[in-house]
Every structure is written in C-alpha cells, then in structure tokens.
Amino acid sequence: MSELSEPRTRRRRADAERSIAVTLDAAINLLGKRPEASMEEIAAEAGVARQTVYAHFASRDALLRAIVDRITAEVVAALDAVDLETGSAADALGRWADASWTLLYRYPILLTPAMASANPQEDHERHLPITDRLDSLVRRGQRSGEFHRDTPAAWLVAAIISLGHTAGQQVQAGLMSIRDAGTAFRESARRICTRDIDPYGPADAGRAVADGSDD
Fold first, then answer.
1. Are residues 21 and 38 in the same domain?
2. Share of residues in the chain with pLDDT > 90 (%)
3. Which InterPro entries does the protein's record reference (predicted)?
4. Do 45 and 68 fall within a single domain?
C-alpha cells in the first residue's frame, strides 16, 4: 500500500465507523419508541441510504445483535465503575441496582419486544457479562451470611433482573415516576436477598395479628 493510499484508507474506515455509530444511535432511538420499525425507517432516521444500513448490518438480527453488544458494553463499564467488590454485599447490590436502572431507563429499547430473542440460550449468552457480575455479588453475599443461603443464587439473579424490567414497564405505563421506580427496584432487590427482613413490618402489624402470625 502506498503512503498516499494509507490516509484514504484511514478516512474510509473512520467514515464507516461514524456511519455505523449513527445507524446504531438511530436504531436504538427509533426501536425504543416503535419496536416494529423497519430497516428502511431506521435508515431514514439515521439520514443514510437503506443500502448503507445493509452494508453495515446484513439483516435486522445482525443490527439487533450489534445494539445488544453496544449497550451491554456500556452497562458493564458502568457496573465496573461502581466497584462491586468492596463494602457490604447489600450496599454493593444497591449500587448495582442504581447503575443498572440508569442504563435501563436510558435505553427503553431494552424493554421492548425488539430485544426479545427467539433463542433463549442466545439471549442468556448475550447477557452473561451483566448477569455474571450480579451472580458473583449474590454469591459473595451468601458466603458472608448477608443474603439467603437456602435460595439458589441463580434464582435470586433472575428475580432481580425481572424486578428491573418491571420497574421500567411501570414508568413506561405512566404508573410510577423514574425516581420512585428506581428506588422501588433497588429496595426490592435488597429485600429479596437479605436475611434479616421482617415480612410483617410496622405497616403490616395489624395484618400479622389478623393472620394469626403472632402465635
């Protein structure tokens, strides 16, 4: 390759990377609002030709995989930044929930059918970088005695992930504010994991008596 052709190659590569980034931004934004949007509509949103989108992503599935990879990398970076290895496991779980909630709400596409994989195993593998960190945290809490040891870590992880999706859906439906849903997610995640939780707190004392739970 000549010295003159190298700058042109670098420029083409940089142009392609910018085009990919613009296309992904447009797809994330549009599919978050309209999960059924077509590749043509995504191209229009990005301000590029349909052929350009297909040049970068051979199919809709390829585009969705790229979206998952991009968002997953951002979530992993956010989780690593909050340091899940220090302090109590319960406090670390709170930090995990807060960081996850910020990203979950930032990307409504994560809660749409567009992100649902027809292959459960593939979907599981896509989320491993995130769920592995949560699994390690839950197991640390179980070893320290902070979290329930008689409940499988995998079940707790699945329950926490489901709570996050539920919180997002409550906001989307207009049933909760962003702040309230985030708080509910964090506290609910801690509640299902921690050992010293009285199922009948002060607000439920009357119900406990009515149920005969105080016998």
1. yes
2. 53
3. Homeodomain-like_sf, HTH-type_TetR-like_transc_reg, HTH_TetR, Tet_transcr_reg_TetR-rel_C_sf
4. no
Q: How many CA atoms lie within 13 A of 142 on its CB side?
A: 17
Mean pLDDT score of the chain: 84
* 119 and 145 fall within a common domain: yes
What's the sign of the alpha-carbon dihedral 49, 51, 52, 57? positive
Burial (CB count within 10 angstroms: exposed 0-12, middle 13-18, buried 19+), residue 60: middle
pLDDT digits (tens, 9 = 90+) for 61-85: 999 989 988 998 998 899 889 989 9
pLDDT, residue 103, reads 86
Task: Give burial (CB, 10 Å; 0-12/13-18/19+) of 71.
Answer: buried
Q: Tell me the β-bridge partners of 194.
A: 147
Q: Report how far residue 48's alpha carbon sits from residue 28's, in angstroms, rounded to the nearest whole number.
A: 15
- The phi and psi torsions of 147 (rounded to 5 degrees) equal -110, 155
Domain that holds residue 52: 1-58
Q: What is the pLDDT of residue 202?
A: 43
Where a domain ends, among 58, 79, 99? 58
Task: Say if CB 177 and CB 171 are below 8 A apart.
Answer: yes
Quickly state the pLDDT bin for 8 (edges 50, 70, 90): low
CA distance 44 to 62: 18
